[in-house]
Structure formats: structure tokens, C-alpha cells
Amino acid sequence: MEPTKGVSRPVSYFPVSPMMLFPDALGNFSVYLWQGGDFVLYTRSGQRFTRRHRKILHNNGVKEVFVQSDEKSNFDTYLEENLGHILGNDSLPWEDRSKVFYEASSGVVEEVFRNKLPSALNEVYFKRVSSIVEDSIRFLASDHSLSAIAPFISHDYKTYTHCIHVFIFTVSILQTYDLSEKELIECGLGAILHDLGKTRIPKAILNKRGPLTRDERQIVQAHPLHGVSMCSMLPLSQNSINCILFHHEKLDGTGYPAGLSGDDIPLPVRAIAVADIYDALTTSRPYADSIPPYEALTLMRHDMRDGLDMDLFKRFVAVLGGADML
Fold this sequence. Notes:
The chain is mainly alpha-helical and 326 residues long. It contains 15 helices and 7 strands. The strands form 3 sheets. A 3-stranded antiparallel sheet has the order 1-5-4, with no helix packed on it. The protein has a two-stranded antiparallel sheet with strand order 2-7. It has a two-stranded antiparallel sheet with strand order 3-6. Strand 4 and strand 5 form a beta hairpin. The mean pLDDT is 91.
């Protein structure tokens, strides 16, 4: 181990739990310890973090190690690649695992939205999104996960974080039904990509303050079709496609783009509709302030009941109540 020297500019560091460093996993970042008032190099970038490294830290009671801030993107990639191990590590606190899940998933989905699938790397991004969904399904099945994630849920609306929230809420609802893990993954993938088509809508319309004109409304209502079109070359199941295409359909037939009604709207789509509306109401948007959860649920129950599945809505309320989110 050696202290950092010869640095010509200030170097900042951020703390990391040693439990998030995996034996034999290669990371393109250096790990430092705080000793004697200075940061001391423990493992170099490109060096394998071994079981012996972890044992030494454990035996010495080290609870935090550090990574340089300019290597954060490399560390984020490392966490993404090892997300399944992190989420399944019961020795890590729920809060730590939830933070890693939220930051990793938000980072990937933000990149997808910024690059507007499909692109030359569309298969790469699709695999990354698929891995996020697959790695987190079992984690989200726990009774503790939603309450642990709740502090990280932002109330400042961004399309990509909205998609993460809708994914979390949708999976939480659907886990109260007898769906297989495969079906949950398919529906979760549709939920996390449900608003992808909004990348084709001009920001001036999406962020407009005040009512939209008829033409502007038609442009916005085309986003489910854009979303399906953008994913046409990806290996999506029918469940996933339904979630992207029909998430604005309503039970009374007044939704879009197809005007479906009643049982013609698949169960996963009805779940996304509830999650989508709830998150939109409880986050601040350019044209509307957020409202408290109880007020949002009251509005949905009384003013939107004809368009929503009320049995599913009641399950959602129970899920939120169980996570102390009301």
C-alpha cells in the first residue's frame, strides 16, 4: 500500500462499502483506504480484488473504502455488471442495495433515452436494460425492497426516472398475482421502456406549460406507436410490446391508441396504467406540481375509476401502505 503523491490537482473520493467489491471481479478503478490522514492505495485499477483483500479489510474492521471521483463511471459500470450479486447479497443493508439498484437502473435508462433506441448500439443497450430487469425482479419481490427504495424515488419528473418508478410500481403490483418469473421479467421490460417513444416527441410540446392544442395532443398520443416502432428489431415478447403500446388504454374505452376496453386490455397493461398515473401525479412536471400520495390516490379512485381496474388499484394501495409510502 502506498499514499497518493504527485497529484497536480485536487483529487476527490467517494466512499464505498467493501461488500460491494467482489472477489475475482476485475474493476477498472483503484481502491483506497483512509489512513493517517491520507488516502492510501489498496488495489490498483485492473487488479483483481481477492478474497484475501476482503478478509484483511474485515479483520481490521474497515467499513469504508474509497474510489476517486474521476473513476466513478468505471465504478458504475462495475456495479451494473455485478448488480445481481449485489441485490442478492443479504449481508448488505437494504438501503445500500436499493441505492445501487436505483442508480444503476437510472443510469442505464437515461443512456437509452439519450441515445434514442434504436441506434448502432441498440442490442448492447437492450441487453443492459434486460439485465437490470432480470437482476432486480427477485430483489423487488421482498417485502422490504419497496420501503428501502422509497427514499431514492425522485419527485422531480424526468422521463427516464419516471420509467424506473413505473417499473418498480408495476412489478410490485404484479407480484400480488400468480405470474411466473418469466412473465414478470417480460412485463417489467415493457414497463421500463413504456415511454421510450417520447424521445420522438419535441421537447417544446412535452414541457409545454398550459393546455396542449388538438394537434399537439395528437403528437403526444403517438408516443406508444413510436415506442413500439423503435423496438421493432429487438427480441421483445408480446407481453412487453403490449405494455409499450397500450399503457394509455382505459377500461371505459376512452384511451389511446386503439380505444380498447374491459378485458381486452391485458392485466399487465392495466397495472402499468395505474403505476403510470400515480407516478405522474406525485412528481413535479413542467405543467403541473406534484400532489401528495393520498391526494393522488383519492383523485384516481373518484375521478378516474371508470378507466382503471379498481381491484388492481386496491392492490396497489395495499402495496404502498405496506411499504409506508402513504
